[in-house]
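> tool_call: predict_assembly(chains=two)
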Amino acid sequence: MRRELIGTEGFLLLDTVRRLYRRKARSALTKVLKKIHPAELAWIFRHLTTRERHDIFDILKEPERRGEFLSELDDSIKLELISTLPPKSLAGVIETMSTDDRVDLLDDLPEELRTQVLEQMKREDAAEVEELLQYEADSAGGIMSPDFLALDEDLTVGEAIKKVQQLSEAAEMAFYLYVVDKANLLRGVLSLRQLLMNPASQPLSSIMETDVIAVSMETDQEEVAQIVSRYNFMAVPVVDHEGIILGIVTVDDILDIVREEATEDFLQMVGAGKDREILLKPVMQNVLTRLPWLLASWLGGVLAMTVISSFQVELVKVIALAGFIPVITGMGGNIGTQSSTLTIRGLATGRVNINQAGTFIAKQLRVGLILGLFFGLLLGVLAWVFYDHDLRLGTVVALAICASMLISTSLGTLVPIILRRLDIDPAIATGPFVTTTTDVLGVLIYFSLAKSLLSL
Amino acid sequence: MRRELIGTEGFLLLDTVRRLYRRKARSALTKVLKKIHPAELAWIFRHLTTRERHDIFDILKEPERRGEFLSELDDSIKLELISTLPPKSLAGVIETMSTDDRVDLLDDLPEELRTQVLEQMKREDAAEVEELLQYEADSAGGIMSPDFLALDEDLTVGEAIKKVQQLSEAAEMAFYLYVVDKANLLRGVLSLRQLLMNPASQPLSSIMETDVIAVSMETDQEEVAQIVSRYNFMAVPVVDHEGIILGIVTVDDILDIVREEATEDFLQMVGAGKDREILLKPVMQNVLTRLPWLLASWLGGVLAMTVISSFQVELVKVIALAGFIPVITGMGGNIGTQSSTLTIRGLATGRVNINQAGTFIAKQLRVGLILGLFFGLLLGVLAWVFYDHDLRLGTVVALAICASMLISTSLGTLVPIILRRLDIDPAIATGPFVTTTTDVLGVLIYFSLAKSLLSL
């Protein structure tokens, strides 16, 4: 038994690999590599240079070992490594992988290389993969594995146990056994354990659970994840429109998807693209990914600038007005980000529903109003103390901050809901829209209030 | 077979339940409730009023049904419902739940009620729960289930199968079988399927996997999640310091934890607390939770205001300076949020490592510098065009925006890494610190540059 390799221990292993590599101690390195779990090796590869990666990948000779390892690797490193392999040996590696990993890898290849690799694979394997490649990569069909255990509903428990013993190693998740009729229609489900607990003569149809929850092949992976998580499933079957079972999605794949989707949402909310591996990409690619969102915020700032310059006359008369600009735009921006994050995450976890969002919106607006009044009052009093007890200036900044916070709360709450209704991912488009609009409207309201209330 | 209940279908069910409730059609309602999956009923309860929840919970008479349902319910609604139950009947409900769900529920109860309930439970059950309650709620010990299948290493396959058949239904996740020696030390693991695939006379010790990865009872749940996800486990064993197996953490619980931790990170990053159920809480609680973070940003704004007023003389001479304030603070704030989000998420997913963060920091700074130069140049040119081709004003705003963006990139990257090293959750403290500091330093640099370059 051993403890997990995370943190320090991982780095010790990384250092060992690097040291042996630099010493060109090939046979010692081969031995060490054999002992490292593919998942740990994948982690180590994140920290190596391109050159090191290629050389060390070369040492992993056996296709099976390479297959296990590639299944665990980050996509960008995976593509980097296999792009130099001849199609024939790549096909050999792919043949050792499980079907869903095969599909995953082939889906990422450039079309030409994919065709070449498929030509080199066994005809039946290639046909199976090509069928699966037709599904959208982020649908249940795209993530399912066709390696499941299906048993005929006419079998007895004893016959079923024999069948399970005969079936190939391929069925990667032998937790649930699916029971089908002659036409492969899904009829029921039972666990391997139930087989063991029942007498051999019992027919499967009498012990199986018939109320099976299934997803269709087009179901979005995020929805599949919600179902698996809600019902605490180890796997969920995927069926076509007639109810014929096509594959299963297992909970370990769902776990990866949930982590990846959360990371994508984090990145998208701050306009850093949706590529989870952005940190592994070159500097210029990072710059270009982050630029559009910043450009939107830059344009908002420039618009706010033109608003301010149109009030130059008033500003010259009461120069103190300039000092409050950062707090008014800042508070609007921050409460807007709070509101949009709460809404976007609420939509993602199902706590906010687009069709019955009324109560949620009303509550958010009340929260925004109370916070707006509080900070407005606070700033108003401060302005009054700070600037010769001028009650009018205090009133202007108090009203301005309150208005700005209420507007951005409304935008931060409503924009994600509207975007989701229009089938646009709210994580992408909400941020720049809310901050930009808040900046412009905030200063506009502020200076308009100043102009009329201070009689400038 | 049926499709999942999400979205429209869920709302149809909710409407049915509500209609029957309002009509006081108690027997029809009882029938409908019986057919609803506990997980779906939990979802429906989110949308009911407190009154409706209590009345409908009353209709669910059987302790078993109540237990299943409570295990699926949001914590805050769960507490609301059980607070009115007498300890004795609550103990009856708890006895029907699996051990980890029992611990979960009892952990949330006020101490007095917990003691009363424990007194009403069977002595052995109470002792088991009390032992588990000693572990931190978010450690492996706190989330593990003691219901696992452990087999003696001396058994043969045939004997093991008999043992599995005799064991109670309690072992909730009979996917892995753990092999232990006389002292309960974890020796190996095998799957139920392996038992079926091997001859009855084979000793377990010859077919088990001896290289078992285990976690210790103190391991943080986030780390447990990383391990389960990295190795694609269905469950991971939890051992004490001597290697004695205490329980298992199953992947379905890990899935819930990953979703919850992601939600908490989202909320914390925008200063909305760490209570995932904040949206279910009253308005004032929402206000109070969001207030401190906004107060920090308000203080930053006020500090920026005092900086600006200290440059009042210069501002009066070149009033155009006021217009650029929002774009300088805004760009700094936005690129700072991008950087801190990338860093915080990178730390959470293990892509950024606090001990070897050098390359990452250097890369982020280069990205920040390029973006700073780009937007500085863009704004400089705009200022030059806009304000009478004054090259000096253009230079001031260009340099100011570039400096402000570079500072906030550095803060957004370094602050989370430093906080993590100090063992403070970076998601909580990064936001206000970065925006506040950026606001103040941004305007300070801007006006200082203006003062010296424009010779004011």
